[in-house]
Design goal:
With about 400 residues, the protein is of the alpha+beta class. It is built from 9 helices and 24 strands. About 25% of the residues lie in helices and about 30% in strands.
């Protein structure tokens, strides 16, 4: 007869996290493991504090001195004796000792564990500091052909005119007898928006970006103009190619999905294809892309490479997904999403890999970057100061 150990899942979770922290310390952690560890850290401020303390060089040095003066195996056995599998009311204390034991086994940090055996555990709730900055949200400004401007940020079910209505916070275009007219959707810093074009094409528009499009598609092609960063899932229509004009080039697609980034503050622009085929062309050259390929344009230089598309389109899933990303690139994303100004007081040359939700306040993002020990931040008003 099998007996289910009470709190077994909690025990396995703590051993798993201890293992991941050990991999992080030894710099042997994979991208998938690092993403798993970061998700655990985001669950509570207590988890975040555990990670920060266990990866703090001064704490480790203090522990090593303590460790050298004790019989580790004997202490480990003592910890195991304190673990109770039969009292559900002691889940909190069980977590404390299980975490300590797993650290002994997997990290060699003993039952020191910040003296948690000597003080009761208190769950830390989310506390918003004076200097914290909330993340962006769905926000857009719709400009009609007559110059009328409509703030869509908090707009619910509303009829704009015979062609346009807002339904559940989304712009909807109806088949109408009126001649098509051009509309523009502009996304501010600290904003994003999802739009369904009149042909059914779905568009995600990132912060500090815009799209200009007709209220109805007529003629032999479907053409829109964008700035900043957009992601398209194009409605299939082989007879009417879908063309995106951006930064002096055209991206032509027939039933495909792709990301365009062309922020003026970035050193390069790029087109990344997730499915189908696209043709990118200027007056001087053109190039066909296949799924998983990215065209990177820097000045007059074009280069095509096969890439992992998941970090590139992660913003459409409300995530920052970093992969060997420079601090400058991370901070430019933060500037647009949190509407802040970044000031560098030291040069930071490290690259960052990991995943974090874009729904967290700025302090949470900065804490995870600081956990590497390679960079530090200070928030003052709407300014973020970066130091080594």
């Amino acid at each position: 007869m099998n007996h289910q150990i009470p709190h077994r899942e909690a025990l396995e979770q703590e051993f798993r996290m201890a293992y991941l922290i050990g991999q992080f310390i030894q710099e042997n952690i994979s991208e998938e493991e690092e993403a798993e560890l970061e998700q655990w850290m985001l669950q509570s401020d207590h988890h975040q504090q555990i990670f920060e303390d266990l990866t703090d060089e001064r704490m480790v040095a203090h522990f090593m001195q303590w460790y050298s003066e004790r019989d580790v195996e004997r202490n480990l056995q003592a910890v195991k004796k304190k673990i109770s599998f039969s009292q559900p009311t002691r889940v909190v204390h069980f977590w404390r000792y299980a975490a300590a034991a797993s650290i002994v086994v997997l990290l060699g940090l003993g039952i020191y564990f910040l003296g948690f055996q000597k003080r009761p555990f208190q769950e830390v709730t989310h506390i918003k500091t004076i200097n914290d900055i909330v993340p962006g949200r769905a926000s857009a400004l719709l400009t009609l052909a007559n110059g009328q401007r409509i703030d869509l940020t908090n707009l619910a079910d509303t009829i704009i005119n015979e062609q346009v209505r807002i339904e559940k916070g989304q712009v909807i275009y109806a088949d109408a007898a009126q001649a098509p007219e051009f509309h523009e959707l502009s996304i501010p810093r600290k904003g994003f928006y999802q739009l369904v074009l009149p042909d059914g094409t779905r568009v995600w528009i990132n912060s500090s970006s815009s799209i200009r499009y007709p209220s109805q598609f007529t003629g032999v092609e479907r053409r829109v103009t964008v700035t900043g960063e957009t992601y398209f899932e194009v409605a299939k229509d082989a007879r009417h190619p879908f063309i995106v004009t951006v930064d002096g080039m055209e991206v032509t697609a027939i039933g495909t999905a792709f990301n365009i980034q062309a922020y003026p503050e970035e050193t390069h622009s790029g087109v990344t294809l997730t499915e189908g085929k696209v043709k990118v062309q200027t007056a001087a050259r053109e190039r066909m892309l296949s799924p998983g390929e990215q065209l990177r344009i820097e000045g007059d230089q074009w280069s095509v490479s096969t890439v992992d598309v998941s970090p590139i389109v992660a913003w459409t899933q409300h995530q920052f997904r970093l992969k060997n990303t420079t601090i400058e690139e991370v901070m430019r994303m933060a500037e647009r999403w949190y509407d802040v100004k970044v000031i560098y007081q030291d040069k930071v040359t490290d690259h960052f890999t990991g995943t974090i939700d874009r729904t967290v306040p700025l302090s949470k993002l900065l804490k995870l970057l600081e956990a590497t020990g390679q960079v530090h931040f200070r928030i003052e008003g709407d300014q973020v100061f970066v130091t080594h």
